[in-house]
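Annex B.
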Amino acid sequence: MFGDIARFLLNTVFTLFGAALLLRAWLQFVRLPPYNPVSSAVLQVTNWLVLPLRKVLPNARQIDWASLIATVVTAIVYIVLILLIGHVDPRALMPMLLIVALLTVIKWALNLVIWLTILMALLSWLNPRSPAMPILYQLTAPFLDPLRKIIPRLGGIDLSPILLFVIVQVLLMVVTRAAVSLTLFGEI
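YggT family protein: predicted C-alpha cells.
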C-alpha cells in the first residue's frame, strides 16, 4: 500500500513539474509574453532548475534547450525513484533509462496538450471572454488549426478539439505501451 501511495504522489508531482517545464519551453516557442499570469507562474515554479542550466545551454531559434534538458533530467529522476520504490535496481535498466525518460517526456507533453485543449474547450463554452482564452488559443492553435482545415464547423460547433483529444489519446496508448514493453515495469 505504501508503494502505491508513493508512486501516486511521485507521478502527480513529477507530471505536474514536467508539464510546467514543457509549458515553459512551449510558451517561448509560441512567443507568449512573459508578463501574463500563466507565464509568471510557470517561470516561478521552474526557475530554480532552468536558470542554472541556461548558463550552460543558451536558447537557440526559439527553442528553450535549458527547459527541455531539465524536463529530461526530471524524467530520469522520476523513473529512478519509481524503480527504487518497486525494489528494482536502476542500473539494471541503465541502457533503456534514457529512452524511457524520453518516452516519459513525450507522455507528459501529450497530457499537457490534452489538458490545455480541455481547458480551452470548457472556457470557450462557459466564459469565452475569459482573460485566459487568448493564451490558451495561442498555445493550442498549432495543434488545432491543421485539424480545423480537415473538419469544418458544424452549425458553429468546432469539433477539432474532440479529434485532437482522440489523436492524443491514441498516441498516449502507444507511448505508454512502448515504455512498459522496454522496461517491463508497470507504470511510468
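The radius of gyration is 18 Å. The chain is about 75% helix and 0% strand. Further annotation is deferred to the next reporting cycle.
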